Amino acid sequence: MASTPVWFGQLLSNEASTLSGACDLLVKYIDNILAHPDQPKYRCIRLENATFKSRVLSARGSLGCMQAMGFDQDPDYIVLPKNADLLKLQAMRQSLVQRAYVTP
Fold it and tell me: In the predicted model, is pLDDT for residue 1 greater than 50?
């Protein structure tokens, strides 16, 4: 039986409103990438983006979640490479919806 990744436990340990805000936005990012896999604008998020900072970066474990999805971080952006496994994104979406109680 596989153990729960540390980042997922951290994510789930956030207060309900923080968890909901982070997971809802993560699911939105995943949905946009899956709907538009060839559009780079959906694969690149500026770390200084106010919404990203307040809803995702403020939640413990959220950056680990994004790294588990395949995102890479540089000093200014977090980027999902073109060759990233979209099945991994679908699986992560399912986990976030089922275990973090996100509205599908």
Answer: no
